[in-house]
């Protein structure tokens, strides 16, 4: 049955990688392999339990006779729920941050971005919109931030080729900004939740590599843009009278939303509670502030109309389902012991976390960045710092392996437009072909990735 589960996962990889041509949504595939994998596992649960949890299972029986029902109850309570809780904590965090972004967006708290980039100069527009994307992605959800910036850019730039180039720069900035902090990307959230990394240590090492991975391709993209862009500036969007906030009120809400998320690492350090609880607390406070500031409008007898793009709404839901499905799928494969065997083979034949990171980066561009990152994370357990040798030191808390994987998969997901959800959103929005992206942008992203990886290598070995 292990072979069936592994084949199911590999087929899932293939379908996810070819989703842009087959039209099959990768979130549906992730949910399918995650659910069916556990069904197959529990149908033959006795073999798996006796192989990996024999002692705990006998203690669970407490003298009772073993049976198929007992095995299923043991798997549900002691194995399955662990992976559900692990996935749910990430999903709840994403749900909270996506809701925070939506509340801020609907109240015009990001309108300053549109005013800030009001220019026809290509250099100024490109750098201001990507800088805003980089900063916001590091503090909010990178998918929602990228999609929001793509919508803003799409309404401003009239030339399609210029939109595709600037849109690609936005996707790069979002992914690089997301991997800068422990709350900016689902991969870093998983690593932080598993206590493989700490917030301060991780960001201090990733700051310069992430900046360079964004700056280098953006410089190269800027060289292909004309000096003056074909832009059209419409009036500020009509929001259906769903917000009448003054500028100072929008600043307050922005401070509550983003400032609250900044406090989450401290909250986790002090309380040791899951980070998603802190995110939900921030959401609840922001929600209350929103209700208070819009109390007159909320009591009015009228329908609120919002211009939140459907791509944001549906994209966020799909991202949540995708993360849940992938994490459940990785959990069931981990329980078969296959990942442990693969890790031993990699240690014997490759014996280099840097080679594994680079390969993972290329695979992220082909398959999906989060899928490959979760596969890499599932390969190894956090090593005990007191019992490690020179190679095993890569897998301790704040070890090099976790940083390399987070960086390579995040930036590698930009090598092709199908490697990340925000890249797929750009493809749909601009009707972009994969071949065009490969020809015009892949080498630029690769240059930034290699420069950032070189700096990370220097930091990890000499700093």
From TrEMBL:
GO cellular component: membrane
Key words, A-Z: Antiport, Ion transport, Membrane, Sodium, Sodium transport, Transmembrane, Transmembrane helix, Transport
Gene Ontology biological-process annotations: sodium ion transport
Pfam families: CitMHS
Protein's membrane topology: Multi-pass membrane protein
InterPro entries, per the entry: Cit_transptr-like_dom (IPR004680), NhaD-like (IPR045016)
Location(s), subcellular: Membrane
Domain Citrate transporter-like: 62-374
The UniProt record lists the keyword Cytoplasm: no
Family membership: Belongs to the NhaD Na(+)/H(+) (TC 2.A.62) antiporter family.
Name of this chain's protein: Citrate transporter-like domain-containing protein
Organism, as annotated: Xylanibacter ruminicola
């Amino acid at each position: 049955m292990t072979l069936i589960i592994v084949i199911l996962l590999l087929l899932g990889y293939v379908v996810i990688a070819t989703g842009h041509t087959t039209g099959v949504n990768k979130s549906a595939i992730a949910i399918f392999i995650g659910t069916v994998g556990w069904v197959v596992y529990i149908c033959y649960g006795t073999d798996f339990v006796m192989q990996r949890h024999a002692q705990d299972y006998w203690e669970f029986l407490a003298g009772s006779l073993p049976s198929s029902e007992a095995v299923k109850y043991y798997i549900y309570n002691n194995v399955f729920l662990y992976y559900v809780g692990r996935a749910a904590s990430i999903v709840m965090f994403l749900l909270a941050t996506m809701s925070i972004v939506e509340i801020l967006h609907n109240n015009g708290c990001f309108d300053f971005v549109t005013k800030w980039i009001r220019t026809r100069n290509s250099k100024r527009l490109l750098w201001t919109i990507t800088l805003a994307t980089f900063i916001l992605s590091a503090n909010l959800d990178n998918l929602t931030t990228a999609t929001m910036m793509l919508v803003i850019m799409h309404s401003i730039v009239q030339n399609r080729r210029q939109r595709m180039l600037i849109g690609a720069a936005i996707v790069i900035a979002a992914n690089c900004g997301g991997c800068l902090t422990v709350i900016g990307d689902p991969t870093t959230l998983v690593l932080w939740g598993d206590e493989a990394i700490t917030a301060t240590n991780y960001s201090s090492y990733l700051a310069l590599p992430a900046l360079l991975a964004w700056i280098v391709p953006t410089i190269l993209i800027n060289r292909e843009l004309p000096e003056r862009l074909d832009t059209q500036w419409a009036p500020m969007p009509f929001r259906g009278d769903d917000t009448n906030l003054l500028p100072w009120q929008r600043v307050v809400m922005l401070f509550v939303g983003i400032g609250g998320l900044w406090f989450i690492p401290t909250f986790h350090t002090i309380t040791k509670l899951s980070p998603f609880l802190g995110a939900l607390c921030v959401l609840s406070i922001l929600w209350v502030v929103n209700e208070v500031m819009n109390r007159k409008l909320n009591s009015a007898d009228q329908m609120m109309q919002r211009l939140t793009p459907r791509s944001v709404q549906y994209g966020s839901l799909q991202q949540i389902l995708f993360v849940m499905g992938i994490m459940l799928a990785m959990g069931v494969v981990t329980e078969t012991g296959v990942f442990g065997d693969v890790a031993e083979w990699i240690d014997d034949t490759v014996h280099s976390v840097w080679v594994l990171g680079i390969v993972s980066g290329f695979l992220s561009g082909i398959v999906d960045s989060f899928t490959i990152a979760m596969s890499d994370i599932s390969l190894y357990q956090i090593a005990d710092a007191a019992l490690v040798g020179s190679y095993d030191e890569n897998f301790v808390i704040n070890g090099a392996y976790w940083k390399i994987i987070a960086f390579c998969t995040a930036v590698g997901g930009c090598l092709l437009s199908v490697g990340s959800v925000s890249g797929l959103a750009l493809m749909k929005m601009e009707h972009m072909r994969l071949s065009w992206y490969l020809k015009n942008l892949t080498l630029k992203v690769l240059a930034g990735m290699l420069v950032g990886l070189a700096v990370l290598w220097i930091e990890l070995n000499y700093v």
